[in-house]
Amino acid sequence: MKHIVLVCALGLFACAGAQTKSDQFMEVLARFHHHLLAGELDVALQFVAPSAQEAFLSIHDPARTVNRPEDFNVVTIDTASDRVLVVVTADVRKENSLTIRSVRLQQVWEHRDGRWLLIKEEIVPTR
Fold first, then answer.
1. Stated pTM of the model
2. Both ends of the chain: CA-CA distance in Å?
3. How far apart are CA 58 and CA 53, in angstroms?
4. CA Rg, the chain, in Å?
5. Rounded-to-10 torsion of CA 52, 53, 56, 57
6. Which has more confidence, 16 or 23?
């Protein structure tokens, strides 16, 4: 009887630890933006599909832009199976400036080979 209880307890524990794709995505999104804010561009780049890296770097690489991220806020998340559209407002500050302005980014994420990747990111007009 003790073995049955232990097996059942282990089974419940394993099920409780299983993440859905949605849970995984939210974790990846949070980690991605954390690394961007921390200035860890090389780590954030690991979340970006190879085909999207040039566009990503044109927005975030300190050698290419004078804008430095101060904060990110997720505005909307639209999910469609293995693809997610995310709209983010980024508060950016120009290098050596005290002025902060908001920029709206549109990100497209895709679940590929068991992991979430940013496949497109662009600056879009604010409303």
1. 0.80
2. 63
3. 9
4. 19
5. -160
6. 23
* Domains in the chain: ranges and CATH: 20-124 (3.10.450.50)
Mean pLDDT of the chain: 85
- The amino acid that residue 83 corresponds to is R
CA atoms within 13 A on the CB side of 11: 6
DSSP 57-89: HHHH-TTT-SEEEEEEEEEEEEEETTEEEEEEE
pLDDT greater than 60 at residue 4: no
The dihedral built from the CA positions of residue 58, 53, 51 and 80, taken in this order, carries a sign that is negative
State both tokens at 104: 């709206």
Number of neighbouring beta carbons within 10 Å of residue 47: 20
